[in-house]
What we know:
The protein is of the alpha+beta class. It has helices spanning about 50-65, 75-80, 125-140, 160-165, and strands at about 15-25, 40, 85-90, 95-105, 110-115, 145-150, 170-180.
Amino acid sequence: MLEPGFHPVAPGRIAAIVTHLEMRAPPPSPDAKLPEGMMLRQVEAPDPDWYRDLFLRVGGLTWMWFSRLRLSRAALGEILADGDVEVFALEIDGRAEGLLELDFRDGRSCELAFLGLTPAAQGKGAGRALIQTGIARAFARPIERLHIHTCTFDSPVALPFYIRSGFIPVRREVEVVDDPRLDGTIPMDAAPQIPLIR
């Protein structure tokens, strides 16, 4: 456990506060329709290169998403081909502009692993439809809980959005990692709101 006070973070590293949330049953909520011109498509065993491109555009360039980008192509492909991992693409004019990913691999719970939209899909109400789809799909299986985590590198609207959607915060962690811009995982100009300290 960290003691109260300031704790130095080495140059070349970044630190985020991670909030873990969960729900034990789906909340009552009105149906949210996808905006006109958008469709949600399940992508079976997505190609890792296609997935990396979408992941980067949804979260890597703006919000410092990097976890899946650090995996080898083979390791990522193994996850994406697993029958207990469901990947959905939100499409606009046939181009993927949103990502919803559910992970049932532990057998008792579901992780809402990733949910996000590119700038082209934001501000139109698609997020509400995505999360309601995720909740419904998760609880269609016999799970004990649905869980998700977000961090201070993510969009500032993410945490309140999850709480409004029925998730309850259950714990916090501090994550310290090597800055993914310095090793080429994401571009050097990604997430400019997070200062780069070498």
